[in-house]
Design brief:
Layout lengths: L10 H4 L18 H29 L11 H6 L2
Length: 80
């Protein structure tokens, strides 16, 4: 029958689901050519950085090109 109202510090938050606004934010302004070009250049710079890091890093990850240093048997036989 009776609905008990509990005290809420911010009553408007508790009842916020009852009120829906029909006000929309203003539409976004279209990006200018300079902004688009700046975003593309930043993206290309980041992509080039990844590709460069990969190209510089691959030779150090290759195990076949840098075999471990082997002591020649003549030096090992001399006991040096």
């Amino acid at each position: 029958m009776f609905r008990r109202r509990e005290s809420v510090p911010f009553a408007f938050v508790a009842e916020a689901d009852r009120f829906r606004s029909n006000v929309e934010p203003p539409p976004r302004e279209p990006s200018t050519r300079g902004q688009i070009a700046g975003r593309v250049l930043i993206g290309l710079t980041i992509a080039a950085g990844f590709v460069g890091a990969l190209l510089f890093g691959l030779p150090s990850l290759d195990t076949q090109s840098h075999p471990t240093r082997q002591i020649p048997s003549a030096e090992a036989a001399d006991g040096r």
